[in-house]
Design a protein that fits this description.
The chain is an alpha/beta fold. About 45% of the residues lie in helices and about 15% in strands. It folds into two domains: about 280 residues, Rossmann fold; about 200 residues, Glycogen Phosphorylase B (Rossmann fold), CATH 3.40.50. The chain is globular and about 85 Å long. The protein binds 6-O-phosphono-beta-D-fructofuranose. The site of 6-O-phosphono-beta-D-fructofuranose has 10 residues, from helix 4.
């Protein structure tokens, strides 16, 4: 369907009747034009504002005094940057780079990219105490373990929640400063900003707010341990739509609201009525850009293999993992599976290497330090057991890698191993599929990721089951090129169809429809009042 027809489709509200789920795959190919067409429904409402903690680019002062620009590795950035670029929007984020303040204008923002501006990045500054309480404390020692089933105990401190509240308020004010109308479209991202929708609505009651929760939502019984559970829910219910990665997360959220608040729930339509608000809850699985710029700009697969494998013997099979260094990612479990593989299958000794890229993350937190030292111990032990002078089966690269380098690894690998113990989506799985335009490579994927619902042609594993994971790895390494191609083609068809544009289009279409309904309701209410009021003389 072309973009003009699509605009008409959205405008006339037909989209709702023809829910995408009921259609055959490949009936649409979702492009940036469809996304732009959707944005037409928000004409005259000023720039779209994305509120997300992590900035898409940061500026740091290098040791030699130069300012260096670093791109964020976050999946959230991958999914949202195409949108914000195509509509000249504003991205509001924490200015965390050591040279971030040096490059901003008088309104604490900058054009990105500076030479050919596509969008505005507005930076919000946090002092050390605020960052400690809001980001490290409440968001990452409280909410992160609360929402991920990895048996790490959440830590809740009152002073952290105070900081979280204050910082959410401050970001809401920054959003308010950036909008140019009284009914803007605002996309609030993730668990850092549960309170922001309510705070934004206090300033801008007519705004359309879509809050998207990128990580899992816990079962209501688990959520109940959070001392400020009610406040968080009320904050999120300031939104027009609350989006999640999977229908299971929506179900958990709705049940949590039912259990915690005096709300009315329309189960058929997934609408929560709370106070004078109606809030829609819906699953929108996040995805990657397709066609994928990073894949098309990468060197040919053969060149990537030559570069990445330059220090490996030619007959060595290569598996890669790409994660933040985080206990939810199951990196240690992957190492244990490799150890078991080498125990059970001697044919892979000196013939198999697993390279794990682990971007340092939240390093000051105890759980992350423990995870890091456990990884170091496992790597040493396994390499001592199975390594030689010239061979190490496990290579741990603890460093930030630019997206282009990550794609080189993904294109060079025989196997990509995604082993999260629990994950909202895991975009690395989809990036691997996007990177493999040669239709080769095997994806070994944890069944506890959102991605496992869509990428059913991956080899699915339970990362907790080390023996099984080892056998699945062996199967991946033995897979024929024909089977690899058939599985990869099927997964590429899924990612092509359910790409990042579709993620945005579905959210914006629903937001446009709800906004139109609201305007219609206001129009009828105003007319009804005009009809019933005595005529003015
Ligand atoms: O998984 C959700 C998510 O927000 C990702 O988008 C992001 O990579 C991560 O969590 C947050 O990482 P950080 O704390 O480094 O911003």
């Amino acid at each position: 369907m072309d973009a003009a027809l699509f605009t008409e489709f959205v405008r006339r509200g037909k989209f709702e009747n023809e829910r995408l789920e009921q259609r055959e795959p490949n009936s649409y190919s979702w492009t940036v034009e469809h996304m732009r067409a959707c944005l037409d429904a928000f004409d005259g409402t000023g720039p779209i504002v994305v509120l997300a903690n992590r900035e898409p680019i940061r500026h740091d002062r290098a040791a030699d005094g130069r300012i260096v620009v670093r791109r964020s590795a976050s999946g959230l950035v991958t999914a949202l940057e195409p949108l914000i670029e195509s509509c000249s929007g504003v991205w509001v984020a924490h200015g965390a780079g050591t040279a971030d303040r040096v490059v901003v204008d008088w309104r604490d923002g900058l054009d990105v990219p500076p030479a050919n501006p596509l969008y505005r990045l507005r930076r919000v500054w946090l002092n050390e105490r605020e960052e400690r309480g809001y980001y490290y404390g409440f968001a990452n020692e409280g909410l992160w373990p609360l929402c991920h089933r990895t048996h790490v105990r959440p830590v809740f401190r009152s002073e952290d929640f105070d900081a979280y509240q204050n910082v959410n308020r401050r970001f809401a004010e920054a959003v308010h400063e950036e909008v140019e109308s009284d009914s803007p479209l605002i996309l609030v991202q993730d668990y850092h900003f549960a309170l922001a929708p309510q705070a934004i609505r206090a300033h801008l009651p007519l705004s359309t707010i879509v809050a998207f929760w990128h990580i899992p939502w816990p079962h209501p019984r688990d959520y109940a341990v959070c001392p400020w559970g009610r406040e968080l829910l009320e904050g999120l219910l300031g939104s027009t739509i609350v989006g999640f990665q999977t229908p299971g997360d929506c179900e958990n959220f709705i049940e949590t609201v039912e259990y915690s608040l005096d709300a009315h729930i329309d189960r058929g339509r997934n609408v929560i009525a709370y106070g004078d608000r109606r809030v829609t809850v819906h699953a929108y699985p996040v995805s990657v850009e397709w066609p994928n710029r990073l894949a098309s700009q990468s060197p040919p697969v053969e060149t990537c293999r030559a570069v990445v494998r330059r220090q490996l013997p030619p007959d060595v099979r290569l598996a890669v993992g790409v994660d933040r260094l985080d206990y939810t990612k199951g990196i240690n479990e992957k190492f244990l599976a490799v150890e078991r593989l080498l125990e059970l299958h001697s044919e892979f000794r000196e013939r198999f290497v697993f390279v794990q890229i682990a971007e340092p993350s939240r390093e000051c937190l105890a759980a992350y330090q423990a995870c890091r030292s456990q990884l170091a111990q496992t790597v040493d032990r396994v390499n001592l057991r199975f390594g030689t002078d010239r061979y190490r089966p496990l290579i741990l690269l603890e460093a930030h890698h630019e997206p282009a380098e990550v794609y080189q690894f993904l294109r060079a690998a025989d196997v990509c191993y995604v082993g999260s113990l629990h994950d909202g989506m895991n975009l690395v799985a989809k990036e691997f599929v996007a990177a493999r335009d040669d239709n080769q490579g095997v994806l070994v994927l944890s069944r506890f990721t959102g991605a496992a619902r869509e990428l059913t042609d991956a080899l699915l594993v339970s990362p907790f089951a080390i023996d099984d994971s080892a056998q699945v790895l062996a199967r991946a390494l033995d897979m024929t090129p024909e089977e690899q191609a058939s599985r990869m083609r099927a997964m590429r068809a899924v990612v092509a169809e359910f790409n990042a544009y579709r993620w945005v289009v579905e959210m914006l279409t629903d937001a446009a429809r709800l906004r139109a309904n609201r305007d219609l309701r206001h129009y009828h209410e105003a007319n009804w009042r005009a009809d019933t009021l005595p005529a003015q003389s």
